[in-house]
Amino acid sequence: MINKKVDNVQVALEGVKDGMTFMVGGFGLCGIPENIIGELVRLGIKDITCISNNAGVDDFGLGFLLQHKQIKKMISSYVGENDEFERQMLSGELDVELTPQGTLAEKCRAAQHGFPAVFTPAGYGTEVAFGKETREFDGKMYVLEPAYKADFSFVKAWKGDTAGNLIFKGTARNFNAPMAGAGKITVAEVEELVPAGELDPNQIHIPGIFVQRIFQGEKYEKRIEQRTVRQR
User: Fold this and answer.
1) Quick one: pLDDT at residue 189?
2) What pLDDT, in 10s, does the model give residues 67-100?
3) Dihedral of the alpha carbons of 42, 214, 32, 147, in degrees to the nearest 10
4) Which one-letter DSSP state was computed for residue 148?
5) Which of 98, 134, 201, 208 could form a disulfide with 165 if both were Cys (CB 3.0 to 4.6 A apart)?
6) Pick the CATH number of 9-114+148-214 from 1.10.10.10, 3.40.1080.10, 3.40.50.1580, 3.50.50.60
7) What is d(CA 219, CA 190) in angstroms, rounded to the nearest whole number?
8) What pLDDT is recorded for position 215?
9) Which uninterrupted H or E stretch holds 177?
10) How many angstroms separate the CA atoms of 118 and 113, rounded?
């Protein structure tokens, strides 16, 4: 069995360059690859095209990359929690491609499974469908959406093994699952890394065939984007 473990995040990100396209898992601040984002900031990689459901918040997650003007283009679905994102978008500093959330997930999944494109009803008759092929199936119109292309997919899991098998916890499964294997190279950071063979095969969400590099992360903050509690 191939050992895909690397010693740390520095080794895991070997080969990243300016101008690349990255998929980044997570939903809000849930399930984001904190160590990888921090290393991208440290490396100063710039002119990034980032495919991610959202852009974090001003002082955490992908918001760090926005603060340092490292992202050139965001391909996202929900972007409403980041003031710096809004400022850069409205000023023209940041190119933004808004995509329906389900479409974004399926375009990642198409890339993951080797499909060149998918047909979806979402966006038909709107600006989302402008310039794209449309087709009727069983009396309903669909838009042809090409699969995403990315140089790296960065995902975060709760537990993994040295063969690259991954288990997510709760809603952290979100966009991490369809992005694993969707880029040319998938890097997974995990909270707990165990030897191959120790994970229950019935509990594995993503098989190791989709992962090229895996490492154990550290010092997770796991911030909560919106904390809401019931009044006493």
Assistant:
1) 98
2) 999 999 999 998 877 889 999 999 999 999 999 9
3) 100
4) P
5) 208
6) 3.40.1080.10
7) 12
8) 98
9) helix 176-179
10) 11
